[in-house]
Amino acid sequence: MLVRRFCTSLSRSEISPICNTSKLINFHSTPQKIRTIYCPNKPTVTLQSQNIGTHRFYSSNSQMGDARRPISVPIPDINKADRSELLRALETSLGSSFSSEPLIPQPNPLIIVISGPSGVGKDAVIKRLREVRENIHFVVTATSRPMRPGEIDGKDYYFVSKEEFLSMVEKNELLEHALVYGDYKGIPKQQIREFMAKGCDIVLRVDIQGAATLRRILGNSAVFIFVVAESEYAMVNRLVDRKTETSEMLLVRIATAREEVKHAKNFDYVVVNAQGQLESAVKLVESIIDSEKARVSPRNVKI
Ligand SMILES: Nc1ncnc2c1ncn2[C@@H]1O[C@H](COP(=O)(O)OP(=O)(O)OP(=O)(O)O)[C@@H](O)[C@H]1O
Predict the structure, then answer these.
(1) Domain covering 111-293: architecture
(2) Residues of 129-163 as b/e, b for ≥16 C-beta within 10 angstroms?
(3) What's the angle, vertex CA 228, arms to CA 224 and CA 229, rounded to 5?
(4) Which pLDDT band, with edges at 50, 70 and 90, does 70 fall under?
């Protein structure tokens, strides 16, 4: 009985699921304290028996720790036993009590960099993500560009003068900054540190140039998502409909966007934001974040 239980225990972890007690060599009849188990396709395990008080322990030479050393405690019938009695017997047999601590530590907060050509819907995706997802902080970028109608200072951007912006650069307060279409844009470090300390994931919305800089700074410690429209035609139409650019600015943005699409390969993921399919694009971004949280080797970002 004892032998059978021990072999079952070993067969789950140490030996083989097809370990057969009938293959034990002279186990019962061998008078010595050292005995050998033979299991097909697995290394031979040598057992040493010791009598300790009323319990008989078996230890193997295959580095079996104390916590996994089986003790001959009868395990009550699972269908009849009281739950706590059953658990106590299992704990005693395994040599330690069951912990309620998480088996795997909480995942680290992520930095998610969202980028893509102009007019593909980055802001639209982020705006919706903000509505549907908790524990996520959308870094408010500092910019020297003038406010557009409907934008709110401190929510859409921190609108600062060129002088104020350059002073932030001087004081090393920005993770990354760039001159974009004649205006400065930059990511305040303090905001990232503050929200990561609270356990929030961080979303950074940057242009392609900014994403390339962040890749150099953060390497693979951050997640890079490239948002793109389903076609150039769709992208241009969205920009025209938005009516925030003059015709000349539109031309520059479209020409730049053509080049920027080629940078998708430098990102970890691509999300197609197709016409009328904003919700699907947002769901895909959420799935990416969830998958990243389930990584066996988590990304570990330091700012
Ligand atoms: N899936 C979609 N279907 C239809 N329209 C969309 C979709 N996604 C975004 N839009 C619209 O397209 C326009 C451009 O979107 P948005 O401003 O979010 O782009 P962007 O990538 O942030 O642009 P930029 O980089 O120039 O700021 C907006 O008017 C937005 O409402």
Answers:
(1) 3-Layer(aba) Sandwich (3.40)
(2) beeebeebbbbbbbbbbeeeeeeeeeebbbbbeee
(3) 165
(4) low
Q: Residues lining ligand 1, judged by CB closer than 6 Å?
A: 116, 118-124, 238, 241-242, 273, 275-278
CB 298 within 8 A of CB 223: no
Q: Which residue among 242, 275, 283 has the greatest number of ligand 1 atoms within 8 angstroms of its CB, and so is best to mutate?
A: 242
Residues with catalytic roles = 148, 242, 253
Q: Which of 118, 123, 207, 239 has most ligand 1 atoms within 8 Å of CB, for mutation?
A: 123
Looking at residue 119, what is its pLDDT? 84
End-to-end Cα spacing for the chain: 59
Identify the weakest region by mean pLDDT among 59-68, 79-88, 118-127, 283-292: 59-68
CA of 238 to the centre of ligand 1 (A): 6
Q: Which pLDDT tens digit goes with each residue over 146-186?
A: 998 899 999 889 999 999 999 999 999 999 998 887 899 99
Instruction: Output the pLDDT for position 23.
Output: 36
Q: Are strands 55-60 and 183-188 parallel, antiparallel or unpaired?
A: unpaired
Q: Is the pLDDT confidence value at 41 over 60?
A: no
Ligand 1 atom nearest 127 alpha carbon: 18
Burial string for 54-64 (b: 16+ CB within 10 Å, else e) reads eeebbebeeeb
Calculate how far, in angstroms, residue 82's C-alpha sits from the geometric centre of ligand 1: 60
| Residue 186 CA: distances (Å) to CA of 48, 130, 144, 210 | 67, 20, 9, 9
* Chain position carrying tokens 């078996």: 58
Asked if the ipTM is above 0.95, the reply is: yes
**Domain residue ranges of the chain, discontinuous segments joined by +:** 2-94, 111-293
